[in-house]
Amino acid sequence: MFKSMKYVLHENFTNLFRIYSISKYELLADMRDSKLGLFWNFANPFIQVLTYWFVFGLVWDKDSVNGIEYIYWMLGGMVVWFFISPCITNGCNAIFSKVNVITKMKFPVSILPATVVLKELFNHFCLMIILFVLLLFGGYYPTVHWLGLIYYLICAVVFSISLSMTTSVLNMLARDTRKLVLACMRLLLYLTPILWNIGSLPKFLHPIMMANPIYYIVQGYRDCFFFHNGFLYYWKSMIAFWVITFVLFAFGSFMMYKFKHKFIDLI
Amino acid sequence: MEKEYAIEFKHVSKIYTLKSKNKEHAINKRFYALKDINFKLPKGEVVGILGTNGSGKSTMSVILAGISEIDEGEMIVNGEQALIAINTGLNQQLTGLENIELKGALLGLTKKRIKEIVDGVIEFAEIGDFLYQPVKKYSSGMKSRLGFSINLCLDPDILIVDEALSVGDKGFAQKCINKMKELKKQGKTIVFISHSLPQVRDFCDTAMWIEGGTLKEYGDISEVCDHYAEYVDYLNGLNATDKKAEIDKKFEKRVISNVEKKNFFSKIFG
User: Fold this and answer.
1) ipTM of the complex in this document
2) Touching check for B217 and chain A: CB below 8 Å?
3) Total-model pTM
4) Which neighbouring-strand residues pair with B32?
5) CA distances (Å), A26 to each of B78, B85, B147, in order?
6) Checking CA distances to A80, which of A41, A98, B38, B153 falls within 20 to 30 Å?
7) Chain B stretch 47-76, residues whose beta carbon is closer than 8 A to a beta carbon of chain A
8) Within a domain: residue B270?
9) Contacts of A262 in chain B (CB under 8 A)
10) Domain final residue, candidates B111, B131, B155
11) Domain-located, residue B181
């Protein structure tokens, strides 16, 4: 098992330029596809945020969560969901969408999940800049705690790559995986306390929610923006997060290693 | 003496599983795409691979390129091999120049190396002002010229060309052949897979004839080509029922029946 993890890590780190080029040109090609290009990368999240804000903020009249105005509280968590969600859905398809490449040339397949995540990372940076501006208007000024975002961003990247590693191989074995993942995404959004506060749940459900790796990241972002409790305050979630991520990565790279030459026969 | 050979095949077989999606024919068979192939390919040789449709040529090319794994036997390769894949990796939305960079990166070239090859590729592909146009505007000939040119800059020891020259006009095919002849002079081993007998005769030293997944003949170019041409004529001369019987017979030989079905979990952990 360690052999396969070493193999995957080695392949990823020796092909950094390849990963960068693939995601750069994928992004470029996506933008060329439409007239407005980059604009849609922002318009789509903006409209979604507006919808949620309308339903939860205005209609259900949630004015504040732990002293933070609802719209800002939601944005702080939502911004990372807009990164993780496409990473999961596209990551699942990472290998299958490159089938014509891997059948025609010798290609390090295990770098594909990383290319997907890197591509989404660019969008995430753009959204983060907009969010910073919005927070400034809302009176939340940068503090030293905001540097913690870097740690949580790394968490999000590692988690997305590990998950994609597993789902993308499973998707090659059975295409049902992608359908399942797509169907579960909406569920995941509502099951993770992103739009609602965890405090409104009965106490006995808290540990289950805390073990959700996505919630760990969402909570981390909010902590950096508003609450300033520090990393160690969430140590239980932290352990759960890294254990889950490690298991996903180990399983994903085990399968990646096992099937590295067999993908061509699985189409 | 071992080093003298670029590629060595020892009893190589490749097996595909045939999955019946139709309930009435729900028998899972296994099928030899290639069966017990033995040969030694000396370094610097240019070999043509001939064979009718479905005889296993494309399977052969992906195995030689190291993309697909063999199921039985042993394959020894001395040197870096590369499959010339014309249209793969080209993105319709990107311009010619961006595609050169993208495909170069896909093929694993470094940034420096890509900068070096750009001029050569542009010149060889003859795309001129279209360089800054998206590839979707290109004619199909132009696309293949671009793809082919990028591939040629890879500089591997063993080149595998699979039906690559069937696209593009005669002039460009000739240009490619000339370029490959140059590579031949540099001592590269080239495996040339084509349907076009004249091209094979003109370009290759030796030929390999694959029929029904087995190696039928491997030897001097003119001999093998003659035999192959004879066989094709014979096959075309047959009437429809005889021809079908012949093909069915070949197919039966390649099937392995009675295989247990593997389920999803044994595929992962088995």
Assistant:
1) 0.80
2) no
3) 0.85
4) B15
5) 35, 20, 18
6) A98
7) 62, 65-69
8) no
9) 69
10) B155
11) no
Which of chain A's residues have a Cβ under 8 Å away from the Cβ of B89?
Answer: 100-101, 104-105
How near does any CA of chain A get to the CA of B105, in Å?
Answer: 5
Tell me the residue range of the domain where B143 lies. Answer: 87-155
What is the identity of the amino acid at B238? L
Structural domain tally of chain A? Answer: 1
Question: Does A105 contact B88 at a Cβ distance shorter than 8 Å?
Answer: yes
Q: Which amino acid is at B217?
A: E
What would the two tokens of residue B65 be?
Answer: 């390129």
Asked whether residue B223 is assigned to any structural domain, the reply reads yes
β-strands B5-18, B72-77 pairing: antiparallel
Q: Does residue B74 sit in the same domain as residue B127?
A: no
Print pLDDT tens along chain B (270 aa): 445 788 888 888 888 877 666 655 556 677 888 888 888 888 888 888 888 887 888 888 888 888 888 888 888 888 888 888 777 778 888 888 888 888 888 888 888 888 888 888 888 888 888 888 888 888 877 888 888 888 877 778 888 887 766 666 777 778 888 888 888 888 888 888 887 788 888 888 888 888 888 888 888 888 888 888 888 888 888 888 888 888 888 878 887 765 555 566 666 666
Helices (H) and strands (E) in chain B, counts: 9, 10
Q: At what angle do helices A112-137 and A148-173 cross, to 10 degrees?
A: 140
Domain range for A169: 2-266
Same domain, B103 and B218: no
Over residues A115-121, the mean pLDDT reads: 93
The shortest C-alpha distance from B62 to chain A (Å) reads 7
- For chain A, the residues whose C-beta falls within 8 A of a C-beta of chain B are 15, 17-18, 20-22, 25-26, 28-30, 32-33, 100-108, 173-174, 255, 258, 261-262, 264-265
Q: Are strands B189-193 and B158-162 parallel, antiparallel or unpaired?
A: parallel
Give contacts of A103 with chain B, Cβ < 8 Å.
62, 67, 88
User: What CATH number is given to the structural domain containing B202?
Assistant: 3.40.50.300
Q: How many domains does chain B have?
A: 2
